[in-house]
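re: ur question from yesterday

yeah so i grabbed the chain u mentioned. its 89 aa long if i counted rite. heres the sequnce exactly as i have it in my notes:
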Amino acid sequence: MSDYQNALTEFIKQEILHGRSVKLDDDQDLLNAGIIDSLGILRLVAFIEERFGVKVPDEDVVFENFQNIKVMARYVEERRRAAEPRVES
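ran it thru and got these structure tokens back, copy pasting raw so excuse formatting
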């Protein structure tokens, strides 16, 4: 599990589920399982922006980017990579 996945899992457990004992798998559909809703997605966006220092544009706040922990971690990694300064040789 990546650092991004660990951080996202902990945030969901503590801030969304408030410590309730719910099994979370990295590829579990969080919306269909009722673990997160639209408010939860907004809280996740705020967490991602603050914790990982990436801007999540409004057009990226879609189900496909927040369906499970693996997808969210990959999204964060891609946004961070895109934000890195490019070095020309």
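noticed a couple things. The chain has a mean pLDDT of 92. also The domain at 3-83 is CATH 1.10.1200.10 (Non-ribosomal Peptide Synthetase Peptidyl Carrier Protein; Chain A).
anyway ttyl
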